[in-house]
Structure formats: C-alpha cells, structure tokens
Design a protein that fits this description.
The protein has seven helices and four strands. The chain is of the alpha+beta class. The chain has a domain at 12-79 and 119-203: 3-Layer(aba) Sandwich (NADH Oxidase), CATH 3.40.109.10. The two termini are 33 Å apart. Strands 1-2-4-3 form a four-stranded antiparallel beta sheet, sandwiched between helices. Bound molecules: flavin mononucleotide. Flavin mononucleotide binds next to strand 3.
Length: 223
C-alpha cells in the first residue's frame, strides 16, 4: 500500500472480532515498526504483548478500580484535563463517536458504558503494553520515541488488516497492568495499544476523525 494512502486510511478501531491474532503476525508487525527512529538510536522501548487470561484480569482490575473511584495513577506525570482548542477537539471526536453509536447526550448509562469499554481496551483480543526503563526519567525524549514507535505499530497493523486503538484508558491504573502483565517496577508503562481484527458491524468503527488545515498550525520562516 502507498504510504500516503496508508496513513490517511488508518483509523482507530474500537470494536473487534472474537478472533485470536496469530503471534507470528504480531511479531511481524513489531519487526517492521522497530524501524521507527529514536533519539540517538536508543530504541528505548519494550513491548509486553498481553492476551488471554492476563488481559482479562487487567480489564477486570481496571474496571473495578474505575467503578470504585480509584484515582488514575500512571507511571509518568500527566495533566488530566484538556482546555481550550484541545478540549474542543476532544469533544468533537467524542461527539462523532456518540453520534455513530446513537448515544444521546443525557443517556448517562450508555455514556458510562462506553467509557467502561475503553477501560476494558474495547475487549480487544490483544494488548501491546509499551514501556521504557525508569532510569531514563525525566524521559520526555524517550516518550517521544515511543510515540513514533506506536504510530509505526498501528500503521503496520493496518497494512495487515488488523485494527488498533492506542488506549490511554488501559494504563490509567498502571499498577493493575504491572501486576497482571508481570511488568517489572524498573520499567515505566507509557501506553497500551489494543489490537485485533475489526468488527465490520460495529458502527463506531466507521468514524473518521478530522484534522486541522495546515494554516492553523504551520509557520514557514525564511522562505
Ligand atoms: C496517546 C493516545 C491515547 C489514546 N487513548 C484513547 C483512549 O483511551 N480511548 C479511545 O477511545 N481512544 C484513544 N486514543 C485514540 C484517539 O482518540 C484517536 O487517535 C484520535 O481521535 C484520532 O482518531 P484516529 O486514530 O481514528 O485517526 C488515543 C490516542 C493516543 C495517541
């Protein structure tokens, strides 16, 4: 597939078939994605590929904590709420998703149900948990590297007919993920990526997010 088409076609997938993803295919995706650039070629990433019972235990632990009001605790500091333009864009994609799903503004039960799906990593058969060595902290540049790696993973997956959603909700309770995926404490959990074969009948999968025109965020200097 031509790269420009691939990058534009890919979209987040939030409904998956109950079909296992072969380990060899995941390995092939990682084999491709690891050609992402990184600061001084440090390649500061680890991938913990979780499936089956351990993933179900993570879903359960995440869900229980969220229901019980346990505050999010990640391995890195993060501002919890977006503001201004960022908040507007956050709301816009949520509106697109809720519209597609037919979830009304005041339907608290269905909205909560949707949020809980996120904490369950959208019931995907596989979750790739990306970590880096804690001794890299303060690790902004390594976190940047993991971002580049993540994009390569989702593109390589899409090229092979697999859907993904990069899933911040799945690691909001990082202690749960450490415990059930056996991730050592000297690694910081950055993000997880839910992966599986897209469920073509799941309407939220039809949602295509938008992007700002270049004029809004690009400056040319010295031209
Ligand atoms: C760091 C990061 C965290 C994300 N976390 C979530 C999440 O928790 N739940 C979710 O539904 N989507 C999540 N997404 C997906 C974004 O909502 C999505 O990438 C964005 O709306 C653009 O849509 P697209 O991926 O379809 O192009 C996340 C994406 C990134 C990069």
């Amino acid at each position: 597939m031509v790269f420009s088409q691939l990058i534009k076609d890919r979209k987040s997938i939030r409904g998956f078939q109950k079909k296992a993803v072969p380990r060899e295919l995941i390995d092939e995706i990682i084999e491709v994605a690891k050609w992402a650039p990184s600061s001084m070629n440090t390649q500061p990433w680890y991938v913990h590929v979780v499936s089956g019972e351990p993933l179900d235990r993570i879903r359960q632990g995440n869900s229980e904590n969220m229901i019980n009001g346990v505050p999010p605790k990640r391995d890195f500091p993060m501002k919890e709420a977006y503001e201004g333009e960022h908040r507007k864009r956050q709301v816009a994609i949520a509106v697109q998703l809720f519209d597609a799903m037919g979830i009304e503004r005041d339907d608290k039960a269905r909205r909560t149900d949707w949020v809980m799906r996120g904490f369950r990593q959208f019931d995907a058969p596989v979750s790739l948990v990306l970590t880096y060595d804690k001794n890299l902290e303060p690790a902004a540049i390594s976190q940047f590297d993991l971002g580049a790696f993540s994009h390569a993973i989702v593109l390589a997956a899409w090229e092979r007919g697999l859907g993904t959603v990069i899933n911040g909700q799945g690691i909001m309770q990082s202690a749960v993920v450490h415990e059930h995926a056996g991730i050592p404490d000297d690694q910081s959990i950055m993000i997880c990526i839910a992966m599986g074969y897209p469920d073509e009948d799941f309407v939220a999968n039809t949602v295509k997010s938008t992007r700002e025109p270049n004029e809004k965020f690009v400056r040319y200097i010295g031209f």
